[in-house]
């Protein structure tokens, strides 16, 4: 990717397409290894942010002896801000039961941790056989609550990230890399 293709509102590229591809392949291999004896694995993508990560990740998972199904939930708490509103809204819930199944939540980012914490409590009450999560990005210093995460892509600094599915006020999801949004785009 040449520098001329970088969006003008991106301060710097944090991870390139190649770096992301390698990391996603690594995560997919770990998941393949860990779930080889699973009967039913439900991968739950959390929209909208996870849609790119989910689509790349699932194509690296090879489990010929497992019923692998994909489900989606849509959850929102950020709106047009760069910090969590603290109000976790479920916009769209699962269509099927997860009772007795192995469940893996697929998320783009964990920042305050509030979304994942809420989600784990909700899904645990539906009695899955197991419940884990695969998260591409984690802002360790942003965490306001303890949340267990089994698969982590990258730990990142406290900057606002866009691209590869992540947005600011619904823009930039289409960028193929992960970049830092310029402060002047959100600081008044
Ligand atoms: O750890 P937290 O502080 O809760 O932040 C993480 C959540 O925030 C983002 O969702 P957002 O509310 O922006 O919805 P979106 O995925 O539709 O962009 C992101 O996709 C995670 O779901
Ligand atoms: O840094 C971020 N970028 C995009 N969405 C987010 N949701 C939580 N943190 C972020
Ligand atoms: Mg968002």
From TrEMBL:
- Part of which pathway? Purine metabolism; IMP biosynthesis via salvage pathway; IMP from hypoxanthine: step 1/1
* Enzyme Commission code(s) on record: 2.4.2.8
Q: Name one GO molecular function term.
A: hypoxanthine phosphoribosyltransferase activity
Report if keyword Ion transport is assigned: no
* Pfam families listed in its UniProt record: Pribosyltran
Locate the Phosphoribosyltransferase domain: which residues? 19-168
Q: Where does this protein reside within or beyond the cell? A: Cytoplasm
Q: What are the GO cellular component annotations?
A: cytosol
Q: Which biological process annotations from GO are given for this protein? A: GMP salvage; guanine salvage; hypoxanthine metabolic process; IMP salvage; purine ribonucleoside salvage
The reaction(s) catalysed by this protein are:
IMP + diphosphate = hypoxanthine + 5-phospho-alpha-D-ribose 1-diphosphate
**EC primary class:** transferase
Which residue windows are transmembrane per the record? none
Q: Chloroplast: present as a keyword of the record?
A: no
Which keywords does the record carry? Cytoplasm, Glycosyltransferase, Magnesium, Metal-binding, Nucleotide-binding, Purine salvage, Transferase
Q: Which cofactor does it need?
A: Mg(2+)
Question: Gene3D superfamilies, per this entry?
Answer: 3.40.50.2020
The similarity comment for this entry is: Belongs to the purine/pyrimidine phosphoribosyltransferase family.
**Which PANTHER family does the annotation name?**
HYPOXANTHINE PHOSPHORIBOSYLTRANSFERASE, HYPOXANTHINE-GUANINE PHOSPHORIBOSYLTRANSFERASE
Protein name, as recorded:
Hypoxanthine phosphoribosyltransferase
């Amino acid at each position: 990717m040449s520098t001329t293709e970088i969006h003008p509102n991106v301060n710097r590229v944090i991870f390139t397409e190649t770096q992301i591809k390698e990391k996603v392949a690594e995560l997919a291999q770990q998941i393949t290894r860990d779930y080889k004896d699973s009967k039913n694995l439900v991968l739950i993508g959390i929209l909208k942010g996870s849609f790119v990560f989910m689509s790349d990740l699932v194509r690296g998972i090879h489990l010929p002896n497992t019923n692998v199904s994909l489900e989606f939930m849509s959850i929102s708490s950020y709106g047009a801000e760069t910090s969590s509103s603290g109000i976790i809204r479920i916009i769209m819930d699962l269509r099927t039961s997860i009772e007795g199944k192995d469940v893996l939540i697929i998320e783009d980012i964990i920042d305050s941790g509030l979304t994942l914490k809420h989600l784990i409590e909700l899904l645990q009450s539906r009695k899955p056989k197991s419940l884990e999560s695969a998260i591409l990005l984690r802002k360790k210093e942003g965490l306001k609550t303890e949340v267990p995460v089994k698969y982590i892509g990258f730990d990142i600094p406290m900057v606002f990230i866009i691209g590869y599915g992540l947005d600011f006020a619904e823009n930039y999801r289409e960028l193929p890399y992960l970049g830092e949004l310029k402060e002047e785009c959100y600081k008044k």
